Amino acid sequence: MGQSFKKGDTGEPYQGTVEDSDGAVDLSVSDGVEFYMENAETGNLKVDGGTMTITDAANGKVEYRWREKDVDTAGTFKAEIKVLFSDGNETFPSNGYKSIKIEEDLEDN
User: Rg (Cα) of the chain, in Å, rounded?
Assistant: First the structure.
């Protein structure tokens, strides 16, 4: 399983590493990084090209700061990261998705 968050919590960002079959992708030559996340059951897109912050370019480390509407629904989500390069864009992972779970918090029960 990937990362888990509580519904409505925006304090802890999603953190990821952009990797291919050779390991971490050097993001120092990228023109930006975008985050996409959709509900695995309904197919509803929750995050559509959200801007990610590169935290360690050489080691492919990125993070996405949640907005309230991103985490207002509990469920299992699939996510991917798109890296923008001057010669074209590339999506990671290239096969499958990253997994994110947003759990109900006790005050909502």
Answer: 14
Domains of the chain: 3-104 (2.60.40.3350)
Buried b (16+ CB within 10 A) or exposed e, 7-27: ebeeeebbebbbeeeeeebeb
Residue 103 contacts residue 5 (beta carbons within 8 Å)? yes
Provide the residue count of the chain.
109
Q: Which of 66, 86, 78, 90 lies closest to 7 in space, CA to CA?
A: 66
Distance CA 103, CA 96 (A): 22
Per-residue model confidence as pLDDT tens digits over 2-60:
799 999 999 999 999 999 999 999 999 999 999 999 999 999 999 999 999 999 999 99
